[in-house]
Design goal:
611 residues; alpha/beta; seven-stranded parallel beta sheet; six-stranded parallel beta sheet; 23 helices; 18 strands; 42% helix; 13% strand
Length: 611
């Protein structure tokens, strides 16, 4: 088989990867060909050896069975299976909870364990914890535990449920923009609309996302479905060779209402949900792939493991705080196919303005409690662009009133169209989102970065360092909660490694090592950091400016700590240290620190016993 460039690169470097890592993720976009790569790895490096492939859905098992059966003797584990693993076959396919006793036998015999959609691996959950424990304690020392995913992130506040506890490295295989350039994927073309009458502010999100029970009624009461259909009816006329669309909905009630509107418009459409029998689902999906069914409305079944390269329009009707859900669903429309040169992404859920284009998404191996709160601002990504590395990028929101008395509400970039007229309705009746939504009311990281590198060396050069540098305990002892966060940032900047990192895993290893060292210092000296509801960059800026929130003692001591770093590191080193220090300060702020800490990377009781 002719491998793609990125696949061949991984095959060539695989011996080095397994020499350096035992548990790792191969990260590549949806549609890049991860299943093909996994099959080729098995063929090249594990011929005649024992392989376990785990995934959480039957449809994924079906796909992997077809791919691997071409060159290997494959068995799909059934619920009732018992006996000895690998009797007459070399590849065992299973969901993580099927025939547990037989699977447990397979785990300790396996030379390679592959986990598809590895972002679903919960190191502290019922489905995967026992598998990970079995592999670590009883698996072959020469065996590998390999994950495949496009989105290596678990946004959870549980520090025992972080992805870095299951995998020790993320291998970045390919990114969306490179694959578009190579013709493997097609360019997404976004059509975002802001639905003014969708009220999400009152929904309880303490679970980390909008609960479907509250979200669905809000969607149905709003004009979201109307906006989606209006946009779709325009875009379907522009697409070639013919429109084939996937509609992502929050629940069955939203899907049914959406399906009714589509069919009423005379468009051939149907619906699949988790409750649709597998055989019927496969029949409907086949009709959709051929274009006999134009619009496929879904609830929770197409975001993962569904492959229809002919799909050229994605319609997103599922507001979410999950970057993974947004990235996975849009990625389903980016596969290339004959005659397909783009995929239209109609977003009426404000996910584009919240997270940004899927080809620009960034992932994190670790998160803290309430890390999802930043996404409650439905213009989060747009706000970040105003002071981004590419200069001032302004986005406009069209407020033109249409014939049906609704607003156009299309979001588009300023200076991208003649006279800044809306590309959807052709009028100029737009507002500057950044100014209108007051997105600049709080300091962003770009502004703080500039302030930090300008202010610290200047103040440090003018201060009597010998007076301030020895006041660490005094500064901590009298610090307010906001001052504690400022001091944590300064301490992290001093302690964290300046070395370049080659992967997300290396990055977080360095950051968490510094965090653990700070926690050790604090519990040793009986200083506690109280959990805070928000992490405000403006508090760190206030310390740089000796403002009103951070008092003189804490401000000057902190700057003395940071300033000394500038004397011993160049700008590139300081830049790397700065970005990690921000993450450490944010985590200490949101998680807190006390003598009761029992984290995967720092146990306070165990640490105190070593003193």
């Amino acid at each position: 088989m002719q491998l793609r460039n990125w696949q061949q690169k991984i095959i060539d470097s695989y011996p080095l990867i397994i020499k350096q890592h035992r548990q790792f993720i191969l990260k590549a976009p949806t549609g890049a060909g991860k299943t093909v790569l996994a099959s080729e790895i098995v063929e090249r490096f594990y011929k005649g050896k024992k392989i376990v492939v785990l995934c959480h859905r039957l449809v994924l098992l079906e796909q992997l069975e077809r791919a691997l059966s071409k060159k290997h003797v494959v068995r799909k584990l059934e619920v009732s299976d018992t006996g000895v693993a690998f009797d007459g076959y070399d590849v065992l396919l299973s969901t993580s909870m099927r025939a547990k006793s037989m699977l447990a036998d397979a785990i300790v015999q396996a030379d390679l364990i592959i986990v598809d959609e590895a972002h679903r691996v919960s190191p502290n959950g019922k489905a995967y914890k026992w598998i990970l424990d079995s592999f670590k304690s009883g698996g072959k020392v020469t065996a590998q535990f390999m994950g495949l995913t496009a989105s290596p992130e678990r946004r959870t506040g549980d520090q025992r449920d972080q992805l870095n506890l299951a995998f020790d490295a993320i291998i970045d295989c390919a990114n969306i923009e490179d694959l578009i350039a190579e013709g493997v994927l097609v360019q997404p073309v976004y059509r975002p609309h802001f639905v003014h009458d969708l009220n999400l502010a009152s929904i309880d999100i303490s679970s980390g996302d909008f609960p479907v029970a509250s979200l669905a009624p809000a969607i149905i009461k709003s004009s979201m479905i109307d906006y989606a259909l209006w946009s779709y009816q325009e875009e379907r006329l522009k697409i070639t060779p013919k429109p084939i669309s996937a509609w992502f909905c929050a629940d069955i009630s939203v899907a049914e209402a959406t399906l009714h509107s589509i069919q009423k418009a005379g468009i051939e459409a149907t619906m699949v949900t988790a409750g649709t029998p597998l055989k019927e689902r496969m029949r409907l999906l086949a009709l959709h792939e051929s274009g006999d069914i134009e619009a496929m409305v879904s609830v929770g079944v197409l975001a993962e493991g569904w492959d229809n390269p002919n799909c050229n329009i994605i319609v997103h009707l599922r507001p979410t705080l999950s970057k993974v859900l947004w990235g996975q669903s849009v990625g389903r429309g980016l596969r290339s196919a004959p005659g397909k040169d783009k995929c239209i992404v109609i977003d009426v859920s404000s996910n584009w303005s919240t997270f940004g284009p899927v080809e620009k998404l960034e992932w994190s191996l670790w998160s803290h409690r309430r890390s999802y709160m930043q996404f409650m601002n439905r213009f989060n990504w747009i706000g970040q662009q105003q002071d981004g590395d590419d200069g001032d990028i302004t986005y406009l929101l069209c407020k033109n009133e249409l014939e049906d008395k609704t607003r156009c509400s299309h979001i588009y970039k300023k200076d991208a169209h003649e006279n800044d007229t809306c590309p959807v309705c052709g009028t100029y009746a737009a507002i500057d989102i950044y100014k209108e939504q007051k997105l600049d009311s709080s300091l962003n990281e770009n502004k703080l970065h500039s302030l930090f590198f300008e202010r610290v060396p200047k103040v440090y050069a003018e201060m009597n360092v010998s007076v301030w540098s020895s006041l660490d305990k005094t500064a901590w002892k009298s610090a307010t909660p906001k001052e504690q966060v400022f001091l944590a940032f300064c301490m992290a900047f001093a302690l964290v490694s300046a070395d370049p990192t080659q992967s997300e895993s290396d990055y977080w290893d360095a950051a968490l090592a510094a965090e653990a060292e700070i926690r050790g210092y604090l519990v040793k000296n009986k200083f506690h950091i109280v959990k805070q509801e928000d992490f405000n960059l403006s508090d760190i800026a206030d310390g740089m400016l000796a403002g009103t929130v951070i008092r003189t003692l804490q401000a000057h001591y902190g700057i003395s700590v940071c300033g000394d770093v500038f004397n011993h590191h160049d700008r590139a080193d300081c830049d790397r240290k700065y970005h990690k220090a921000i993450k450490v300060a944010e985590r200490l702020s949101m998680i807190g620190c006390s003598s009761h800490d029992n984290l995967p990377y720092f146990n306070a009781s165990a640490y105190l016993k070593t003193l």
